[in-house]
């Protein structure tokens, strides 16, 4: 380089303002001297950040917070919580300011309520409570290995089995109920383990067996000097225990254990099938992604799970939580086995702090407003009302040479830059509609009728960004349903893009946010324990208690809500026309049919029907017409569709730094190489991967890969 020449920062154009892109930008701007290396501009369609997790304040309805989706963050979301905690550490709000700290912003909860919408089902809603763990999510605690997950499940099942039937509370009482051939096989498995150097079963006498001592010693061996060391020894140690668990569970179910403990019987069966599958398929060495070409339920069935367990509430709820359905049809559940199993194992066995956390208000004000302010203060530029229309590959090279964007508005005279936030009770928030006073002709009803978050929205100008002038690198964080048009030339040039677009599946979502007069405790008839859960086999299976948001909304005293609830679920593609009216009809059906599954005291006296007067309606409408005062929504825009991971999808996904174009990087929960699952943690992980690829820095990503044995 000639003497005196200085290098300018590389210009990075970021398209999309969801968790994937913003976590990438946050990571890049945490690097030392980042301004000397990068010049970052975020281009965002419409007026707010947040992607599918965005929320907005309805300034025409008491500044209530209106969101899209089900935003419960589980305690294993280590990277997502690390991001949120660093944002709050940097924000440094003064004492007494609303949502001043991370602990004020995210509320821990240890209990899930899992119910059923089947009126003929005699099983009551089940509250699953897990004890609080050490630390907080984001501390960076190491994830267990696949083998450690299997070991934990196996020992838990062995511990639970003698508790499933009151008349068979010891192994000495259970084992005689096995078939003779099964009892005869156990000594052979123990001898095989001894031949592999496993000492945990030494001293077992098949002529005078002490099964309780045997299992206590085998369980204790995992932490002692006799612990199995090699992968082969671990399998040999596990086989006698797995055999004991499977044969005993089968015997106890035949003796009526399912009637005594229906949920735990199913969970023990699923745990044993998971252990058998991990060992049989070698996932402790290959990793869970090795079974992503199979559906989880089919994989569990293949490894011995019963049909009753496969239909259990806990497994149905796992599919519901991730909306793992083909075309949004709840009668067609389908999900990549490795991705769903990884999420389940980490959810229940690897969380830090609480099982899950709910935001104290909408995620817009809890996360995306402070994140926006931190990034803006660091020097990141934001261009709102700019939508990506077209990416142009270089005809003579391997990169992207231009990006065509549509500018959606003209700013009003005197407005140099769109200011997107409003304050409600001192809390910076995104409005649910644009701030029209900053827009030319913003008071025109025609302008106010435009959905500026839709790809089809009109624009006032087309702008071409050129490589070497307006950008050097591009980060795209727009999901494939909305990206397909802009990427058509990329797909024509690079076959992997076409394959990715064809094998990225998504569904529409819908939901209702309800404001109710009674408190949550009054609706329950007692103190609330669970803050979220599922009422499976219903139109809107996922629910969350959002009542803490009321303190940050602008309700007058006479209309103050006692409780706020979120109900959401998938919407079949053939019904996904974006209209709120069918969603309102479904919400009405749900409230007429299932309210007691969630709120025992919400029904009219002597009936199962919801008491409509409990819905808050400042206009005082009667009966089900009070639903008109609630927030019913449907994801009508392509960018808002929920990414689902069907069997086989992950192997077609592109990595954050593997787009096939040298200056194009990717982020979002549709990007491969992380969790391959539609959730906040997956989006953040891919954002960190993009930042690592862009910067060349060794950015740590917790839980990025399954921990496996290398032997």
Automatic annotation (TrEMBL):
PANTHER family: AMINE OXIDASE, PROTOPORPHYRINOGEN OXIDASE. InterPro entries: FAD/NAD-bd_sf, Zeta_carotene_desat/Oxidored. This is NAD(P)-binding protein. Pfam families: NAD_binding_8.
